[in-house]
Amino acid sequence: MSASFLKLEIEGHVAWLTLDRPEKLNAMGPEFWDGMGPTLASIDADPQVRVLVIRGAGRAFTAGLDLVRMLPRLPLDPTSTPDGAQKMSMHRMIRQMQAAITSVERCRVPVIAAIHGHCLGGGVDLATAADIRLCSADARFGVRETRLAMVADVGTLQRLPAIVGPGLARELVFTGRDLGAEEAARIGLVNRVLPDPGALFEAAASLAAEIAAQPPLAVQGAKAVLIEARRHEIDRSLEYVATWNAAHLVTHDLAQAIASFGSDEPPGFEGR
Predict the structure, then answer these.
(1) Where are the domains positioned within the chain?
(2) Looking at residue 197, what is its pLDDT?
(3) pLDDT at 2
(4) Dihedral sign, CA of 115, 117, 98, 14?
(5) With pLDDT > 90 as the criterion, what percentage of the chain qualifies?
(6) In this predicted structure, what is the pLDDT of residue 65?
(7) 24-38, 43-57, 190-204, 254-268 — which is least confidently predicted?
(8) What percent of the chain has pLDDT above 70?
(9) Which listed site, 169, 184, 193, 254, has its alpha carbon 20 to 30 Å from 247?
(10) 3-state secondary structure labels for all residues of the chain
């Protein structure tokens, strides 16, 4: 598969970034994590772009991390205790993945996430880094990392509480449960729900056009100030979770989760 997984199109003052791996529900493999930073940098460098819309091709926004394709990159051997070099490698990889998501939040222009179908795991990281979220009625959200015996480490824990409130964020993270479009709207995770993906993309285009028609420097300045209000808090927390997972991610529970991945047999978590 080529880097065309990230399909960028510019229409007037609006950039459309499509996650384009529909046969795998746009699962986030190496091409996503390597490509997001450079892609967002190219958008930042284009003075004609005033708004960015991120969407998924096919039946979903994204099913989240492509665990199968990313495992070779991650020093995860649950059968052994990682040494110092492996922990440093893990920390470095987590920080690189965090940077891919943070590039969305720190983008010069407002970012709209147009979400349909699955938005799971890393998809929630991506969606919460956007400025505005819209979804269609078929959308499903879930912080799935908990179910995989992982601490979500690329942005959800830092951004979700400010969007839905700390109590609801904790419930969603601690249970790993999914929620549908109407609940997502009710708790403020999305601004509104559209009947279907077609209506969703039309609404995203209309909102993007409305934003793009405003004085661009004022809009971009307002975004910069809004981001700055929490930037240092987010940066500190991202570093903390990277350090935590580098030290504690490799567990027996993780081995159980990986072994049961794609199986109907539930893993037996033992807390070790």
Answers:
(1) 3-259
(2) 99
(3) 42
(4) negative
(5) 81
(6) 95
(7) 254-268
(8) 96
(9) 169
(10) CCHHHEEEEEECCEEEEEECCHHHCCCECHHHHHHHHHHHHHHHCCCCCCEEEEEECCCCCECCECHHHHHHHCCCCCCCCCCHHHHHHHHHHHHHHHHHHHHHHCCCCCEEEEECCEEECHHHHHHHHCCEEEEECCCEEECHHHHHCCCCCCCHHHHHHHHHCHHHHHHHHHHCCEEEHHHHHHCCCCCEEECCHHHHHHHHHHHHHHHHCCCHHHHHHHHHHHHHHHHHHHHHHHHHHHHHHHHHCCCHHHHHHHHCCCCCCCCCCCCC
* Rounded Cα gap, residues 54 and 10, in angstroms: 12
Residue 233, exposed/middle/buried by CB under 10 A (0-12, 13-18, 19+)? exposed
CA–CA gap between residue 39 and residue 180 (Å, rounded): 30
Mean pLDDT, the chain, rounded, equals 94
Residue 143 C-alpha from the chain's centroid: 10
Spatial distance between the Cα atoms of 69 and 202, rounded to a whole number of angstroms: 33
Top-level CATH class of 3-259?
alpha beta
Q: Which two tokens stand for residue 99?
A: 């940077």
